TrEMBL record:
GO terms for molecular function: polygalacturonase activity. The keyword Secreted applies. This is Polygalacturonase-like. The gene is LOC111472226. Keywords: Cell wall, Cell wall biogenesis/degradation, Glycosidase, Hydrolase, Secreted. It comes from Cucurbita maxima (Pumpkin). Signal peptide: none annotated. SMART domains: PbH1. GO terms for biological process: carbohydrate metabolic process; cell wall organization. Belongs to the glycosyl hydrolase 28 family. It is found in: Secreted, Cell wall. SUPFAM superfamilies: Pectin lyase-like.
Amino acid sequence: AELTFNIVTLGAKPDEKSDASPVLQTAWAKACDSSEPATIYIPEGIFFVRSVRFNGPCKNNAITVLIDGTLVASSDIQSLQINDGKNVNINGLSSINSQLFSIVMNRCQNVHMTRVNVLAAGDSPNTDGIHVRQSSDVTILNSNIENGDDCISIGPWTSNMWIESITCGPRHGISIGSLGMTFTRTRNGVRIKSWGRPSNGFATNVHFQHIIMNNVKNPIIIDQNYCRGQDSGVKVSEVTYEDIKGTSATEIAINFDCSPTNHCTGLSLIDIKLTYENHITKASCKNAEGTTFGVVEPSSCLASANFYPYTIDPLGYS
């Protein structure tokens, strides 16, 4: 039978006062030292914890942390961070009022997150729900994120990421890479952003699909002048926006503000319908090239490679 290490059996007290961190560390050491699959079990009750590090490598690659209780962190704990993990599965985890990012995946491979629930105050800065960086093969499904910053933020050197069926709001939304979303009163819906400075980076072959916007300030946006400085060197290309519908909180529902030295190319708008206070919205384009398919409202301002209008509304150029 699989080994189970119950932290209460090992001495932890569910009284919300006694520090359970040393017991958690002991439970991890035992599970990590086992040559068989092992489970660290946190039963019902409220356990106070300080900073805890679960370090590997371990003698087995199948350790489960099963939480039926509640872990209350000290005020200096900022996030749950997993570094250099492989085959990570997070299911049914709730994070409430984290000091900074709730969950961080750093240099991880093959990560699957489902039914994650993140709650933080809408006016709390830098409380990204899930931050992924330098990781590959990451899936986030069927989750709810209500916080004061990005619902999901995607950092450098991240590849093969799939995000589906996420409820996100009320602040920044998801910056890049989403499918099957509902955004409610967020500052941004689907956004690609880059700093105004030299870079050899690129964002290409991105597909935003089947998304509902509810009173979102910037439903569709590319911002290559984030923290304005020099011209952005990031090359944005082959980005598709498909089946995006709902309401904008501003008249400009599509805003492509691309680099003057590295134009956005290969943008595609397919079946878009966004309204503002029951009226037709507008689109704004700078240095953006692409095509449209089906019904697109607001009318597209995307240009051919040789012509770049700045703003167009349904009545013509402005």
